[in-house]
Amino acid sequence: QVQLVESGGGLVQPGGSLRLSCAASGITFSNYYMSWYRQAPGKERELIAGFTSTGDITNYTDSVKGRFTISRDNAKTMVYLQINSLKPEDTALYYCRALSMRGRSVYWGQGTQVTVSV
Fold first, then answer.
1. Predicted pLDDT at 65
2. % of the chain exceeding 90 in pLDDT
3. Dihedral, CA atoms, 83, 85, 90, 91, nearest 10 degrees?
4. What is the structure's pLDDT at 30?
5. How many Å apart are CA 80 and CA 69, to the nearest integer?
6. In this predicted model, what pLDDT tens digit does every residue of 28-41 receive, in sequence order?
7. Residue range 113-118: mean pLDDT, rounded
8. DSSP string spanning the chain?
9. Contact at 8 Å (CB) between 68 and 60?
10. φ and ψ at residue 95, rounded to 5 degrees
11. Tens digits of per-residue pLDDT, 38-70?
């Protein structure tokens, strides 16, 4: 079975930092594009950034560039999202996505909640 499990979310004050993790299993990790998305309350799901299996960054959302950093560890089949200088508007469910390089399969995690508030 395919599993994507996000972790690392929580409640943080503005200006704080979090590192989100996505653990993948049940897929040939190196054959998948891995990405982070988020969905704020009442908003559509938004792509933050993604990696190819070779480690090339495919995208960064302009609003978070410089504060959010995506990384990938193929050996551990993990992807990470380091989030710095958090703002209240960063409050959202953060999702990990795996997309097969053939474009035939897509998998989503259940999301991890990030809440930025005083």
1. 83
2. 75
3. 90
4. 87
5. 8
6. 998 899 999 999 99
7. 96
8. --EEEEE--EEE-TT--EEEEEEEESS-GGGEEEEEEEE-TTS--EEEEEE-TT--EEEE-TTTBTTEEEEEETTTTEEEEEE-S--GGG-EEEEEEEEETTSS-EEE---EEEEE--
9. yes
10. -120, 145
11. 999 999 999 999 887 676 777 778 888 889 999
Distance of CA 75 to the CA centre of its chain: 18
Lookup: tokens for 27? 């897929």
Structure tokens at 78: 């993990």
Task: Give the pLDDT confidence score for residue 103 in this predicted structure.
Answer: 80
- Best CA proximity match to 90, nearest among 116, 63, 117, 59: 116
CA distances from 85 to 6, 88, 91 (A): 21, 10, 12
Q: Which amino acid is at 76?
A: K
